[in-house]
What does this fold into?
Amino acid sequence: MKNLKLQWIDKIPPLEERNPELFYYDLRDSEIDNGYTVERGVLVNNIGSLVTNKDILGDKEFITDEELSNLQFEEVHDLYVKQNSMESDIELE
It folds into this structure.
């Protein structure tokens, strides 16, 4: 996937804080192997979240950590910035 950017976050932000141009996913311990799966919404066993600039699931319900690592993404730290955080204050300047 060309120009895919990904940022690891603790949890998906509330709807009012989300950027509609970004895609938000949850991570869950895999029931398939010792890795994790990436899903659109996890109600239980959430072990983290991520945000991307492109839809990485398409019509799939989930992808594995191995499939994610094969996507060739750039890991960034400024794709999603929490409101009222030091990062958001710097962006305003």
